[in-house]
């Protein structure tokens, strides 16, 4: 146990020694304290251990010294050898220094003499310089006083004030200069007031001249566009002259606009002889230059710049305010644009003619503010325009306005984006105008085929409308073309709208594909909205009869066939192939198809209405004992009307005529059935049934006469099959067969509904009670009356079975 404690103590002492050797001296205290805090007498053993460690380090030091001793001895020996040479070198340096001191005494004396001479010379030059500085200051101050008294700012602008301020700083220590300096603040304020007064007069003047400056700039921009067109023509012929033109005194190659038109190029000798006008020709900018120079010299340039920019911002807001009635005439828009262009032309000139009075950032800020206001104003006022010619003039002004300002480096993309909105407004006004034109054409149309007496008349018609029919061309004159007079007129008006839309697309810097797309969209709007609406309203008008509706169907058919020629017409204008992927197609086919379907539906409706009018003339004597032996007069008139009407349908497509005929027959059959089953009709005699049967026979004969060709077999007669089976049932009195075969597919009376038969039978039953219609049955056999009662009960059971 004691041995273990001894080993632990030794190990702990080794650790403490290593910690003492490896740590900082400041940390030794806690380590030594741990020795005394441990076991009793532990410090003695530690001291023994420490002594042993010290002796060990001493032996290592001794070994190291013995190892390096010989090297140290060798170094001392070498140093002793060098000492003699060092003493010899020291003597040589001392001798050399002595001889240099003796040789430089004379040079030092001469140098001191030169220094004294130079000081005298500098003092003399300083005196002369001060005298030269003082004399000009006095002269300049005298001139300054004279110029202020006479308010000659032009002279003040260049030398006296600036030089006086600069030179006086060098002689400020003299009393006369101090007196002058005390007067300078007052002189500066006077100069500022005079120059500022001139600047205010300039700002008022430029406000009045902006209109003229803008008018000149926009006129030159318009002439430049005309010149470009002339250059394009000359280039195609091999003649081209390099343009040289200017608006603000700077020569431009392709961005700024100016005048270079000559009499030979434009044919306008008066404009060719006019002098090129610049902003400096129209406005005197000297007050701005003077005021800027004076404020710069006086060290107050920033104040002047802020004042000028603030005033110009106020003027910009005034310029951007439009007149209330600006939208009424093109002159109102022109004055508005002239003032804005004039304002920015002046700012562009100030930007380039001065150094920092206005910056590009300032003009861009003004332009962005103005552009937002301009777009809002134009968007509002253009919405009031309902005249397409005025909208077109506005578009031309916007293009010239944008081109003019673009020439001065202002971005105008938003203006061209606005033109797309104006284009929509232009299209709307065109559509409204063309809607009136179409209505007028429809009002004046006689809705009859066009008569052609001579070949010249025929050529005139086909020159206005692409009509080709080999059979009609073979006919001799006079002859008739199937469409009415409105067809070539409408086709011509559609082409006129395309031309009107093309006018708006000019000068918009758009590709042929985009122009083609614009024209096609405008044409589609005209066809699908305006013309379609006019056709729909025309079809719904009360005075349009069946003959007119038939002619409308024929007209829409020919207009539909002419749509491909409109496609070719647009393609010839834009030179864009219709096979291009993004080419918009004309929707005229659907427009005319919809109109034709509406006309067809109106034909069916009017035909049914006419049938109803004839039906209202029916005057049956429902209690008659026997029939007259002939059909009713109203029905014969109705059949004659239908025959004459269907003869007019020969020019219609076969399906339309067949559908109209079938619809008329079905409506007639339904109306006759409703007449029999009318709830207000309480009694019907067998004689009335026989008379009604004669009328139905006439209807069946009309259906079998094939009033419209194309029906197969007895298709048309099937429209009256319900009536025929019902009347046969009552005429033959074949109730046993009806009741026995009811519900069978092969039943003879398959189309007779039990409810219909019951309603009609009850009306005849009520008549038998009062008028003794069934007296012969009661006299012969009372059992037959019971049979009728039985039939009624069975029919009611069938009706109840169907309802349940």
Automatic annotation (TrEMBL):
Cellular component aspect of the GO annotation: exocyst; plasma membrane
Gene3D superfamilies: Dsl1p vesicle tethering complex, Tip20p subunit, domain D, Exocyst complex subunit Sec15 C-terminal domain, N-terminal subdomain
Domain Exocyst complex component EXOC6/Sec15 N-terminal: 49-218
Residues annotated as domain Exocyst complex subunit EXOC6/Sec15 C-terminal: 415-763
A single GO BP: Golgi to plasma membrane transport
Keywords carried by this UniProt record: Exocytosis, Transport
Coiled coil: none
Role noted for this protein: Component of the exocyst complex involved in the docking of exocytic vesicles with fusion sites on the plasma membrane.
Similarity comment text for this entry: Belongs to the SEC15 family.
Protein name: Exocyst complex component
Organism ancestry: Eukaryota, Metazoa, Chordata, Craniata, Vertebrata
